[in-house]
Amino acid sequence: MTTPALAQAQAQAQAQAPQGNEQPANTADIVVTGSRIKASGYTAPTPTTVIDSGAIEANAQPNIFTTIAQLPSLQGSSGTATNTFSTSSGQQGLSSFSLRGLGPIRTLTLLDGQRVVGANVTGVPDISLFPQLLIQRVDVVNGGASASYGSDAVGGVVNFITDTRFKGFKGNVQGGISDYGDNEQVLVQLAAGTSFADDRIHLVVSGEYAKEAGVGGGEWGIGLAGGRDWFKQTSLIDRGITNDGSPRFVLRDFAQAINYTKYGLITTGPLQGTAFDQNGNPFQFQYGSNGVPTRGNSNVVTGCFPGFCLGGDLSGNVDAGRSLQSEIERINTYTRLGVDFADNDELYFTFNFGQVKTQNQPVGGMNRPGLTIQCANPFVPASIKAACATAGITSFGYGTSNAALGNTQVHTDRRQYRAVIGAKGQFDAIGTEWTYDNYFTHGTNYTDIDVSNILLTNRFNDAINATTINGTIVCASATARANGCQPLNIFGGNPSAGALAYIMPENGPFQRTRQTQDVVSINISGSPVDLWAGPLSIAFGGEYRHEFYRVRADAYGMGSNFAPNTADYPFDPTLGAGGNNWYAGNYKSGGGAYSVKEAFFEADLPVINSDAMGKASINGAVRVTDYSTAGVNWTWKLGGTWNLPIEGFRLRGVTSKDVRAPNLSELFAAPVTTTLPNFFDPFSGRNVLAIQNVIGNTNLRPETARNTTAGIAFSGASWLPGLSVSFDYYTIKIKDVVSTLGAGDIVNLCFQKVATEFCDAFNLNNQQGPNFINVQPFNLASWKTSGFDIEASYQWRQPLGLPGTLTLRALATHVREFVVNSGIKGTIPNDLAGVNTGATPDWKWLAVQNYETDKFSFMVQERWFSDGVLGNQYVVCKPGSCPQSTNNAPTIDQNFMPGAFYVDIGGTYNITKQVTAYAKVDNLFNRDPAKSPFFVNPALYDVVGRMYRAGVRFRF
């Protein structure tokens, strides 16, 4: 049985190259992911961590993505627990890796060294669509690799290696459930392989089905799904005052929005503070903080913060309705046929189909603050009408969570078809044996997004504006009535079926995306010359790649003026022809394409080979790339390794220039629209409903990066067998970073007159349509990050005289700095290292202890990251001692987010030589996530809680 540690101890598994790709002398030529060089005994200078099949099995995850994402150097990866609060992003349930916190778009993910068509217009693949049972190992290259592999490898490379010559039959059946009785999981995997014609034809097939029920939205107020009790409605409240000696920002639990409640609240005027129950009966709302409504023309409550009170009636808060983890259902099939047409040459064909369906609930209800209701509205209770008359008013401000309308659901369906035809092998030329691997791959990905139970804003506005004609309650607008408007009783929780059908039609927002990728690649390597210190090894080749996408959206979201056809939606003159008619999910149509032509050359030159000096080699590579959108770019790398004359010690280092070309989304994005239901407008001092539009920019240039790593490794010493240790320092500098400012930053920079050029990008008092903020990417920013990785393992055979083997392994990453310079006039660089609302804690480590015999194994795994802050830009101070708060140095009363320590345990028992039972418990002590002003941070914290899994593996 394979040792189920994170990766085998280096002394035992040098063939798997956990410490820089060392290879034993008798190993066949292999391609190391950190390089294109293919040669026996080759040692790459780039640090590489390997996760073998034993580690994958020991983690017992329903998706291999989770196992890999636990590595400390992977920071900011997306998965089923991220993007669950989104309606419009299109990234719900998308599993993609991020190395060094640089984002998935700067990590190149490969399958058998080949690119995979993106599952999103950002170009990143979905690991859930990969064939997982046949994965032999996963190589994680922690360093720039653009010169070897091309664009996107700024942070590094994650390469999945499959077993192309598997013979036999194997399978895995697994089930799981959380401690709260949800997130039920099932996984069934089967694979078979055989050979024909005297072992010259090889056929491998696999298939799998997996389903994770996820953790859906909870109750209104603060009650999460499954009875989880850690949510405290923590909010970072902006007091809006910068120079009174007190902190501008305060962090508070149990924050209560004062501009809406579950079934409605009068928010301005003499009747402010009157709320309504589910039956529409008025009652006096209980504000927290002993707040007293001012009953003026603005929504101000004495004793409360702007927009929020603390405590009181929290029943209308909507955040607890967010999904903690998306539901996901996966189907994968994979086939590989290889034909050895000569002794060392193979023609191969692979085809895989994968489908991933996800579902999430972004938030509870569809809150609508800032409404104006006429006192004459026939749905207004009689007592309120009388109070209006007494107060001498004809209308009042109103806000509601719209709990009566139910909760929005987002459904995604990704389908991927990918085929590869290639040839690899050996040939002789000019007296040298060369190896080659040439292939053509075509991939197509379809992504369908459908949103259900969501309102059309203009129809909602017309429906709540009711009047009485001939004794019948109708919509006040004649145009709306002529187009089917049904009046909506917004007081309480009992809307009519007709009103619901009118404001939330059965056909909700949708988006249909088709992406294709075509790649032709030629790779040749060999050792043409024997030099004084050994053979000169080289690799060279070229590649052509074409990327294309097209997206079609519904007419109501993109606008009937731009929709290619409106058959799914009847014409409605009450809706805006320019689009953005939905409360959220206003998708747009668009498309684009680009092509890439490139050539590369790489060489490994041995320079020292002696007993006195050890062995050393220099490795270099250069690649020229011609982007149809960005012109010609050069990338390069230069590094080396030195096996010191002291047994077991080796130095390594590499520096490189890497690039990332703008992806399809950044260049040609169909505008992505996101609803911001509670956006703070500093100009008016109130929260407003706004729409954020993210649009593309065809003038973007490639990002360029300088990536340097240097380290020392120890392994394989006869005088200390079983021990491997390494230390590697890294620094990455990226300029011309394609980035966007957040909607809040755009508004605040204008408000504070720091960058007035952004003032034309928004309108938060739009009388002609919805409030909006336009967000567009530019080559503005520069990033710099540095830190170091530590990796150690020790294997002890027959520990303390016991049968079996004890394997200890630990990996750690320390982020010294992660400085982001927005490039905007008037701003200063911001260090994100240690910001635990993000993805780059100061320290992150993973440790595994495994004891294994021929009959059973037991594994303990620890995952930890360090304490951090909400943001390094904040100045912490107490009331009466605060300096003036500025945009670059805002004042705050507390700036701390704790780290977390998780313990996982697992074990196996061999029922027979062919059948193994196993069990796993994740988050053994059921550690709750830390409170966050942004609900929760699933990029770092476990939001599901204790998980139990068990299953059976078999192989014949």
Task: Describe, in plain words, how this protein is organized in 3D.
Residues 43-157 form the TonB-dependent receptor plug domain. Residues 396-924 form the TonB-dependent receptor-like beta-barrel domain. Keywords: Cell outer membrane, Membrane, Receptor, TonB box, Transmembrane, Transmembrane beta strand, Transport. This is TonB-dependent receptor. Its main location: membrane. Helices cover 7% and strands 45% of the residues. It has 956 residues and is mostly beta strands. It has a domain at 14-168 and 205-216 and 325-361 and 412-449 and 513-568 and 571-901: Maltoporin, Chain A. It has a 22-stranded antiparallel β-barrel. Strands 1-4-5-2-3 form a five-stranded mixed beta sheet. The chain is globular, with a radius of gyration of 30 Å.
